[in-house]
Amino acid sequence: MWLNINYMSGEQITNSVETQTLESELHSLKDSPRKQKVDINVLLNKVRLAKKKEKMESSIFFGLVAAIIVVAGVIVSI
Prior knowledge:
Layout: H1 10-31, H2 40-77
């Protein structure tokens, strides 16, 4: 009798957890009042900041690559 226990696979457990999460989010959305309108300027500022950060990262990357090339050139010329 005790050997007849049903085991759930990992996929079934994941699906069960996802279903419970989605159901709780749905209930919270129904219960919560509507959010106010979204300001387009706030969204544009977030996009600008993301682009600025991306530009800074790419500048740093290209600077490091250029520095490596210069250092390698100096080492090879010695």
